[in-house]
Write a structure and sequence with these properties.
mainly beta; 4-stranded antiparallel beta sheet; 3-stranded antiparallel beta sheet; 38% strand
């Protein structure tokens, strides 16, 4: 078996969202990214630019996902989310 050479012709799309506590519904953030791929990479950063691990992420379909931040309580300041696919 030869080494991995990458995927020819693949181009990733990036979606970025800054959000505050009022964007959540009972701790859940719904994101409409419109990337066109269901399997995407999601990263969340708190108001101090620290990477955080959400309680869960559901890749709903090719245009949206939900992020569960319930255990983080009331968010202070602006958090950031990045979706890459």
């Amino acid at each position: 078996m030869s080494g991995y050479s990458g995927i020819s012709g693949y181009s990733a799309t990036v979606y970025r969202l800054g959000f505050i506590n009022s964007a959540l519904s009972t701790g859940i953030l719904t994101v409409n990214h419109n990337i066109g791929r269901q399997i995407v990479n999601v990263q969340v950063f708190d108001n101090n630019n620290n990477y955080i691990v959400p309680d869960g992420i559901v890749l709903t379909n090719t245009t949206s996902l939900t992020v569960n931040l319930t255990s983080y309580g009331t968010l202070t300041g602006t958090y950031n989310l990045i979706v890459m696919g």
